[in-house]
Amino acid sequence: MSDPSGAIRIVIRYMVNFRERTGKKQEELTLAAGATVRDVLQQLNDRYDLALPDGSTMIVVNGKGWSQLPKGLEQELDNGDRLSLFPPLMGG
Fold first, then answer.
1. Which of 8, 34, 58, 65 makes an SS bond possible with 86, Cβ 3.0 to 4.6 Å?
2. Cα dist from 48 to 7, 14, 22, whole Å
3. Could you tell me how many helices (H) and strands (E) the chain has, helices first?
4. pLDDT in tens, 1-58
């Protein structure tokens, strides 16, 4: 459903330590049309002091890492997009 003001709604999903920092599993944000991944990260930094983007944090938009998006952090978001934040993944 389109917002008459041109605003879009996206869902942010917080994994592991981001859940602890924000106190939430997920939240919905309403943004101005044309908002980018970088705009969302700035809002989250301001709200939760997360210091994003961080090279060790995985940022996924609709199942793709931000580096896989055509415009990277400048990728515009669409209504209904899902952005997930994962801590550094370690294996051994």
1. 58
2. 23, 12, 6
3. 2, 5
4. 446 578 999 999 999 899 999 999 999 999 999 999 999 999 999 999 998 988 888 8
In sign, the C-alpha dihedral spanning 7, 14, 53, 47 is positive
> 37 and 64 in contact (C-beta within 8 Å)?
no
How far apart are alpha carbons 79 and 88 in whole angstroms? Answer: 28
- What integer pLDDT is reported at residue 1 of this predicted model? 46
CA atoms within 13 Å, Cβ hemisphere of 79? 9
pLDDT for 3 equals 62
**Helix, strand, coil: what percent of the chain each, to 5?**
25, 30, 45
CB count within 10 Å of CB 43 equals: 15
Is residue 91 within 8 Å of residue 73, measured between CB atoms? Answer: no
In the chain, the domains with their CATH numbers are 8-86 (3.10.20.30)
